[in-house]
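ok trying this again, last paste got cut off
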Amino acid sequence: VQLVESGGGLVQPGGSLRLSCLVSGLTFGSYAMSWFRQGPGNQREWVARIANFGASTYYADSVKGRFTISRDNRKNTVYLQMNSLKPEDTAVYYCNPYNTKYWGQGTQVTVSS
């Protein structure tokens, strides 16, 4: 199983980024998918989850109303649209098939002026 996150970078407060995670080696449509993040000195925390076919989405309170998770099962890819970014969103972001041990290398998001 391979997960490749991309789309991170440096952005000013209030800006936007769109993260992508390409998944291979498992039946993508059989899994709900989550995004997690780990900021400097912090434990990894859950950010958002999307059901197998995208009908249901769930968000941490800290990102609700600013982030949107989506997926394209034809492309084996899950996305995280991040708007109104804040410095406290700075972290390495990871995707994860729900209830599995599989992780990618993550993508760094830095929100700073």
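PB: full thing came through this time. Residues 34 and 49 are 4 Å apart (CA to CA).
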